[in-house]
Amino acid sequence: xxxxxxxxxxxxxxxxxxxxxxxxxxxxxxxxxxxxxxxxxxxxxxxxxxxxxxxxxxxxxxxxxxxxxxxxxxxxxxxxxxxxxxxxxxxxxxxxxxxxxxxxxxxxxxxxxxxxxxxxxxxxxxxxxxxxxx
Length: 134
Fold this sequence. Notes:
Mean pLDDT: 93
Number of helices: 3
Shape: globular
CATH superfamily: 2,3-Dihydroxybiphenyl 1,2-Dioxygenase, domain 1
Helix content: 10-25%
CATH topology: 2,3-Dihydroxybiphenyl 1,2-Dioxygenase, domain 1
CATH class: Alpha Beta
Structural class: alpha+beta
Order of helices and strands: EHEEEEHEHEEE
Radius of gyration: 14 Å
Number of domains: 1
CATH architecture: Roll
């Protein structure tokens, strides 16, 4: 597995974008609305390090609860994997639990992603290396 990005929960993407630009990050995407997950997101990069800024698109978005409790914060590592199904099986056997079943992610070219959690590590996102053929 290879790290793809670090996910940051932020209250306001435009404000966070400006702060990360001052640290040398540049936007590598437009801000996307993911209606299924009720989030807005933006990818940024600095010398090969990629972050994903995530803000709630509605008060019922799961990330809204995190922001209410702790404020802006990094909250997941995303790993790119060859086979989402195989890696999920392996991690579930190692004690991870599914937070969100695999879904196509519009901001990631339609590749499927899933979220898992482990009590010793926290939240992981897995993203397929290639989008599934339709």
